[in-house]
Amino acid sequence: MSRSLVILIVVILLLIGGLFFLSGRDVTQTPVTVEKVVPLENLSN
User: Fold this and answer.
1) What sign for the dihedral angle of Cα 29, 35, 36, 40?
2) For the chain, counts of helices (H) and of strands (E)
3) Which of 4, 2, 22, 24 minimizes the C-alpha distance to 12?
4) From residue 5, how far is each of 13, 17, 39, 43 by CA, in Å?
5) C-alpha span between 21 and 23 (Å, rounded)
6) Nearest-5° angle of CA 12, CA 20, CA 4?
7) pLDDT per residue over 20-29, tens digit each?
């Protein structure tokens, strides 16, 4: 096996391992309420 092929396989395995690691993380964020003023002239249409 050539050295470049071994390096390519190692890089692919690291990428796949990183994807599994990131997909297994439990990240929850609370929703943020954003209030925006709506002018009355937009409601008359």
Assistant:
1) positive
2) 2, 0
3) 4
4) 12, 18, 63, 64
5) 6
6) 10
7) 998 888 878 8
d(CA 11, CA 7): 6
38 in the Ramachandran plot: left (φ > 0), alpha (ψ -120 to 50) or beta? Answer: beta
Please write the tens of the pLDDT for every residue from 1-45. 799 999 999 999 999 999 999 888 887 888 899 998 877 776 665
What one-character-per-residue DSSP string does 9-29 give? Answer: HHHHHHHHHHHHHHHT-----
